């Protein structure tokens, strides 16, 4: 044996010498059987860089779309929301109702008093549910107020 080298039998690592020789033969068969085996490192590098690039582009586009949806929000256009119903949103009861719906649904609801428009901001599925709940709640409040006035 040479100066600094220490020989450790394969059995010291818990490996059967026959299994080790079989694995070495199998690796050589793969290496010799595939003409591109010699280029494996370069091919793997190219594949990984292409995949990362494609995934990054897809992810960036999806994030941008989601961000635009969050920033733009959705204007509520519902036939039942007449200007009279929208003017209810200036009342204390309506403001409390709007804040309650907003908190329950995890969205942000903005009411533009000058233009009488409602915008809802948040995840797309939550925005649709928030719109349904807000419209139903506003109409119920309107009906309640009309009943109160008549009595």
Automatic annotation (TrEMBL):
It holds the Pfam family KH_DEAH11_2nd. It comes from Populus alba x Populus x berolinensis. This is Uncharacterized protein. The lineage of its organism: Eukaryota, Viridiplantae, Streptophyta, Embryophyta, Tracheophyta. Residues 51-71 form the DEAH11/12 type I KH-domain domain. Residues 72-146 form the DEAH11/12 second type I KH-domain domain.
């Amino acid at each position: 044996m040479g100066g600094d080298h220490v020989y450790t039998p394969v059995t010291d690592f818990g490996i059967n010498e026959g299994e080790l020789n079989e694995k070495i033969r199998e690796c050589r068969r793969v290496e010799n059987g595939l003409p591109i085996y010699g280029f494996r490192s370069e091919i793997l590098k190219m594949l990984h860089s292409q995949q990362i690039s494609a995934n990054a582009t897809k992810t960036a586009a999806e994030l941008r779309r989601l961000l635009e949806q969050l920033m733009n929000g959705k204007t509520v256009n519902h036939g039942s929301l007449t200007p009279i119903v929208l003017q209810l949103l200036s009342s204390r009861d309506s403001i409390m109702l709007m804040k309650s719906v907003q908190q329950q649904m995890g969205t942000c609801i903005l009411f533009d008093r000058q233009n009488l428009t409602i915008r809802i901001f948040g995840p797309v599925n939550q925005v649709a549910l928030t719109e349904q709940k807000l419209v139903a709640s506003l109409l119920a409040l309107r009906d309640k107020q009309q009943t109160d006035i008549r009595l």
